[in-house]
Design a protein that fits this description.
single chain, mainly beta, Lipocalin, 8-stranded antiparallel barrel, elongated
Amino acid sequence: MTAPVLSELTGTYTLDPTHTRFGFVARHAMVTKVRGSFTEFEGTGVVNGDDLAASTANVTLQVASVNTSNEQRDAHLRTNDFFDAPKYPTITFVSTGVERVDETSFNLNGNLTIKDVTKPVTVNMEYTGFATDPYGNQRLGLEGTARINRRDFGVDFHAALETGGVLVSDKIDLEFDISAIKTA
């Protein structure tokens, strides 16, 4: 990947919900992984090409939009065992700083709030490109990952297995595929 010319990236961006994914991966029954995502969200970011550390990002996920391709599991995730969507309808991330790692990667530091519990999280981000689409929109592409402990955020469902281990892992991997459109 070619290093971005930061001055070209400077601007305010809005997430494109049809080309962006906020996903998660949890180990299930100690033998396999279950993947899911939130299908309703909004977010903005400001890239400061002169001072990358001054860039910002804000994202709000609608908890009720959780989708693991299994309606029964999704309904369970919306209960108090997990996210308690009726009481805590959103998950938010608000950046607190950006640290450049190399020419195409950086750490996005911020506060993640799940079930009214806010903890600092670092998202490892990778710049994947900048292009003008056929409709004239300038698009910024990013991919990101982070690992959290769900219990740190009050997501405490715990079911022990007869053979040892647990039904759902405490460690959750977060995955982000982002397409953001530069606003005029």
